[in-house]
Amino acid sequence: MSGHKIVLLGDTMVGKTTLIQQITQGSVQLDQYPTIAATEVKKFYKFENTQYKLSFWDTAGQERFRSLTPLYFGNVSLFLILFDVTYQQYSTFESCTSWIDTVRTSCHGAKIILIGNKLDLKAQRVISSDQARLFANGKQIWYVECSAQVGTGVIKLMDKICEYINKPFPPINHYTEESTEVVHKKRKEKQCCF
Ligand SMILES: Nc1nc2c(ncn2[C@@H]2O[C@H](COP(=O)(O)OP(=O)(O)O)[C@@H](O)[C@H]2O)c(=O)[nH]1
Ligand SMILES: [Mg+2]
C-alpha cells in the first residue's frame, strides 16, 4: 500500500491545523519535522473497500509570508486549499486565486480541492456555497464545505479525497456545465431528491 501526500494550503487562521486535528483525532502523529517547519500527520482511511494511507502536510505559520519551501510541492497527490466562509480582517476567499496559481505554477496538473471552512458560523457567513462553487468551476477544481471545529462535512471530505486521488486529471466537476440553481430546478422538475 503506497502512501499519498496531501498538502494543506490557504491563508493563516482559515483552519488548516484544526482540520488536520479533526481528521486525525485518535491517530498517532508519526512524523514531525520541526526544524523545517512542516508537520506530517499520517492517517489510515478506508473508502470503498480500499485502505488508504494518507499523510497530511501542515504549514507552521510560514503561509503568512507565502514562503513555502519546495518541500511542500514534491510528490504531492492532492492539495487542499482552504478559506474561511466568514470574513475576518480580510477575505481569505479572494486569496484562493493566488494559492491556486502558486500550486499550478509549482506542480503542473496538480489535483486541488477547494474547501470552505467554518460552516458552523452561519450568522457570520459571507461566502455562499454557490459563489464558491462557481469560482471552483472556473478553476476546474472540486469544492467541499466543512466545519473543521465541529466536524460537519469532514467524512464527506475524506471520501472525496480518496475518490479524487484515484481519478485521472481533470476531475468531473458536477457544477461545470450548469449552476447549482439550474441543477436544483431540474431535480425538482424530475421530482427526485439527493
Ligand atoms: N468556528 C470555527 N472555528 C474554527 C474552525 N476551524 C478553525 N477554527 C478556529 O480558527 C482559528 C484558526 O485555526 P487554525 O487551525 O489554527 O488555522 P490555520 O492557521 O489555518 O492552521 C482557531 O481559533 C480555530 O479554533 C471551524 O470550523 N469553525
Ligand atoms: Mg496552522
From TrEMBL:
| SUPFAM superfamilies cross-referenced by the UniProt entry | P-loop containing nucleoside triphosphate hydrolases
For whether the record's keyword set contains Nucleotide-binding, the answer is yes
- Annotated SMART domains: RAB, RAN, RAS, RHO
* InterPro entries for this protein: P-loop_NTPase, Small_GTP-bd, Small_GTPase
Keywords attached to this entry: Nucleotide-binding
Gene3D superfamilies from the entry? P-loop containing nucleotide triphosphate hydrolases
Output the Gene Ontology terms for molecular function.
GTP binding; GTPase activity
Q: Which NCBIfam families match?
A: small_GTP
Task: Please identify the protein, giving its name as recorded.
Answer: Rab11
User: Which organism is this entry from?
Assistant: Hexamita inflata
